[in-house]
Amino acid sequence: MRLSTVILPVHRWSEGGREAWQRAEELGFHAAYTYDHLSWRSFRDQAWFGALPTLTAAAAATSRLRLGTLVTSPNFRHPVTLAKELISLDDISEGRITLGIGAGGNGFDATALGQEPWAPRERADRFAEFVGLLDRLLSQDVVSYAGDHYSAHEVRNIPGCVQRPRLPFAVAATGPRGLRLAAQYGQAWVTTGDPKVSNGGGTSDESREAVRGQIERLGKACADQGRELADLQKIMLTGFTPDRPLDSVDAFVDFAGRHAELGIDELVLHWPIADSVFEADVAVFERIATEGAAQLAAR
User: Could you give the C-alpha distances from 178 to 63, 80, 120, 204, 297, in angstroms and in order?
Assistant: First the structure.
């Protein structure tokens, strides 16, 4: 199992931002991601910087760490402009970028550009079109397209991605349409567990059973596309289940081992942020990144 982290863009680059990304590389994390939002929940009235400029700076400050969004959505992005930025970022990082991508939700991003929140059906329709067009833009030199929600007219994306045929997609999805997109376009799949379990006061056992069901449905979607489930990395962004894996190294190893048994290939831990929902003991977090990861590898 791979161990990664997500570093929220809440610090000025000169005041802890750079150091966090460099420390993530020193600790041996497989990848470091960041949220792609204009603002997010309890951080709405606090410092929050842009995802793609942050990843560009992180690419220049590191050399081995994979980097990516977790996740980008259509809420305030357009495939044409996003593709150009991603190709540039993939070049700057020398091929270390993964695009985490999801349908988005009804949070602050959903209305920031002055639009009404999209209904669930429209959101799903837009997501399908967004992913399909982005796939073409990142893998073809010239693209024209006219869809229901997005268009591209003789768009040039030369020289394309460093990673061929394009940089990998990690598709966040739990519903049937999203899982089909993951199976069709994804090199990885992302889950945070089942919010109905966490929000409803469910147990850790119930959470794991929900993840098991998600992976089974992903397998069926892959079969429908003529793919093997093993072709997709299964990524879990932690922090949204009833578990507390950052309480101790033992708690993490138990959590990670149980999810590895379900088929999860990569766990993503939130970098600790004081006085927030992601507050955690930094010393324990760093021990998890080193000792905890080593214990998993020895199993």
Answer: 33, 21, 12, 25, 32
Q: What is the H or E stretch that residue 293 is in?
A: helix 293-298
Kindly give the pairing relationship between strand 2-6 and strand 151-156: unpaired
**Number of domains the chain is built from:** 1
Angle at 272 between CA 270 and CA 278, to 5 degrees: 70
CA distance 212 to 241: 14
Largest CA distance in the chain: 55
How long, in residues, is the chain? 299
Look up residue 140 and give its DSSP letter.
-
Can you spell out the DSSP letters for 226-276? Answer: T--GGGSEEEEE-SSSS--TTS-HHHHHHHHHHHHHHT--EEEEEPP-TTS
Q: Give the tokens for residue 70.
A: 């977790």
Domain that holds residue 171: 2-298
Compute and round to an integer the Cα radius of gyration of the chain.
Answer: 19
pLDDT digits (tens, 9 = 90+) for 229-286: 999 999 999 999 999 999 999 999 999 999 999 999 999 999 999 999 999 999 999 9
State the pTM of this model: 0.96
- Confidence grade of residue 296 (pLDDT, cut at 50, 70, 90): confident
CATH number at residue 187: 3.20.20.30
DSSP state of 15: G
* Cα separation, 66 vs 89, whole angstroms: 12
